[in-house]
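Morning - FE2/S2 (inorganic) cluster inputs below, output right after.
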Amino acid sequence: MTFPFSSTRRRLLFLGASLASTFGTAIAAFGQQTTNLPKPTTKPRTDGFVPVVGPASILEKHGKVLTDKVLIVQNKDNNKLVAVSPLCLHRNCVVDWQEETQHFICPCHGSEFGTDGKVIKGPAKQGLKAFEVKVEENSFFIKPRIEN
Ligand code: FES
């Protein structure tokens, strides 16, 4: 019997599936702490905001809120909420928040991003997608930030 994929390709597919499973499990595990969510919807409200996660107390409890779509933190300088896409577009790693510097840091190659998602330090050339964020009904709502 012949397989449609080479041995190397099968191993890569298996590795990809394993990583996807592991990563999905990690997000799902975190998500289990964040139940009571309004169901994610693909349709924004009339004001453009979409509910992403709740309850709002998870930010205080964990210091950040991470889903597959958004990383929400609180800027300690002005206490405003900050929301960006967690995906570094250099090589698709998940960024983390560094409270001391108030920067998002990519653990893979060291890129740094400001609270507006713009690149502070490469190698990433493209910034993180930034969102407007607010809390309503005990949940976080986001909408893409329009750049002027
Ligand atoms: Fe983020 Fe390379 S993947 S700096």
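Note: Residues 68 and 74 are 18 Å apart (CA to CA).

O.
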